[in-house]
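Here is an idea for our session: we take a single protein and study its fold together. Once you have written the record down, we can walk along the chain together.
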Amino acid sequence: MSTQERLKELARIKKESDEQKKKEWDAYLVRVKESKIAKQQKKQADSIEKSKLADNIKKDVDDFPKCGDQESPYYMRKSTTTGFEEKITFTDYIRKHIMTKLNYPEFAMDHELQGRVMVHFIIDKEGNPQIKEAIGPKNGLILEEEAIRIIKSLPTAIPATCDGEPINVLYAIPINFQMQE
């Protein structure tokens, strides 16, 4: 095969690769659009529900329960050095969890998607994560999905308490997706 023929073959392969990438991107943008529409519909439905509830609820700060003794969620693990159980704060645990569980999506790398995803979730009364929403960069649906996967993979924590009673606690955690240069 001559040099000219090899160059033509390489150009053809590159063109096919570029066309395939464009098709993948276009299909992905359709998913992004569908996701945005679904989020808007959910927000509208939630807004309507909240306005109905607001009519029935007396807004008086004095009616909210106050905690004399509040404890945040935490994890227990056996210390490798002492062999005793030790308490790990939720914030320390989640930081390490994100670092070990984050898998940068290949599609995102191929299409140079990066940015910060803010994940809003609750650690419920049983200590399980319940995702509320994930907000990422423009066209960052795949990054949002990865951030949700990471949070959903959290093991059950010892739940937060208010005066000894388990309570739900809301968290907002940023997860940064940045490609190395």
User: Anything to note?
Assistant: The helical segments are 3-56, 90-101, 106-110, 141-152. Residues 41 and 47 are 10 Å apart (CA to CA). Residues 3-56 form the longest helix (54 residues). The first strand starts at residue 70 and ends at 71.
